[in-house]
Design goal:
Strand 9 (205-210) and strand 10 form a beta hairpin. By secondary structure, the protein is α/β, with parallel strands linked by helices. It has a six-stranded mixed sheet with strand order 6-7-8-3-9-10, sandwiched between helices. Helix 3 (95-105) packs across helix 4 and helix 3 (95-105) packs parallel to helix 5. The protein has ten helices and ten strands. Residues 238-249 have low confidence and may be disordered. It folds into two domains: 1-79 and 157-249, Rossmann fold; 85-154, no CATH class. Bound molecules: adenosine-5'-triphosphate and magnesium ion. Magnesium ion binds next to helix 1.
């Protein structure tokens, strides 16, 4: 049975149709990528799924329950959590305190939220700096802090909005490994990225949005060879070295 389903999802902002009649389905344990040009509606689709915006039309079903229009914290409590495209930790709190807030917000009430936060900071590779403040963290470390914060809500499914954006190649490798560790633990993953190497490595299946519409869906190989996708998105990034789009170098 599908874990997450969107049925005819549309989101309009005034005259802008950010998400246009999108229907999709993600199985439990699957890792699915979402790509498309800037402004295609990817973040808006995530926001509609996680309750930040109510869809103008359509339905969101998670684990058999209709969650359309539910409050974000209720959706998070039901096991569906997302990382933010722009990471904004609480600057005055230590890393462990930041992640503990996630554990408490998640509503799963672990017996020892701080112990759980420390475990997760270890898991994302930030155990050594757990008691420091976030102000000296690199972009890659901030992304990993965000992942720990989201894992602290104990989600069944994670939505990642551009976790590899702005990272250098080494940090990108680390994030790919981390997302793979998360999928290996049986979590269902739905991720947006412009870094094709990261997205194509992690995804079993890729969906493509353009102008709010789902224009293609398939394996990473199929998507990289789809004329419509190359025209709408992959081709636009083609500079002197077309290989760079796929390799992410
Ligand atoms: N709160 C909002 N109010 C009005 N228009 C919005 C709002 N949020 C998004 N939009 C518009 O909806 C469209 C889709 O934006 P969205 O941020 O979902 O794209 P995206 O695919 O995530 O792009 P990017 O790759 O640049 O992150 C754009 O035209 C954007 O300007
Ligand atoms: Mg976006």
């Amino acid at each position: 049975m599908a874990l997450l389903e969107g049925e005819g999802l549309t989101k309009r902002f005034g005259g802008v149709v950010a998400v246009d009649d999108v229907t999709f389905s993600i199985e439990r344990g699957e890792s699915v990528g979402l790509i498309g040009p800037n402004g295609a509606g990817k973040t808006t689709l995530f926001s509609v799924v996680t309750g930040a915006y109510e869809p103008t039309e359509g339905r969101v079903v998670f684990d058999g329950e209709d969650i359309t229009g539910d409050a974000p914290h209720d959706i998070c409590h039901s096991g569906l959590a997302k990382t933010h495209q722009i990471v904004r930790p609480f600057e005055s709190l230590t890393l462990v305190e930041n992640v503990t807030v996630g554990a408490e917000f998640g509503g799963r009430n672990p017996d020892d939220p701080e112990g759980r936060a420390l475990e997760l900071l270890d898991f994302v590779g930030l155990g050594d700096v757990a008691h420091g403040k976030p102000d000296h963290l690199s972009v890659g470390e901030l992304k990993r802090l965000e992942i720990a914060r989201v894992l602290a809500t104990d989600p069944e499914m994670l939505l990642f909005d551009e976790v590899a954006g702005g990272l250098d190649p080494e940090e990108t490798e680390e994030i790919i490994d981390l997302v793979e560790d998360i999928t290996d633990r049986g979590k269902t993953v739905f991720l947006i990225d412009h870094v094709m190497k990261a997205l194509m490595t992690v995804s079993e299946r890729v969906m493509v949005l353009d102008n709010g519409q789902l224009i293609a869906e398939g394996t990473p190989d199929e998507i990289q060879n789809d004329d419509r996708v190359i025209e709408a998105y992959l081709g636009e990034n083609a500079n002197e070295d077309p290989e760079s789009i796929v390799s992410g170098d």
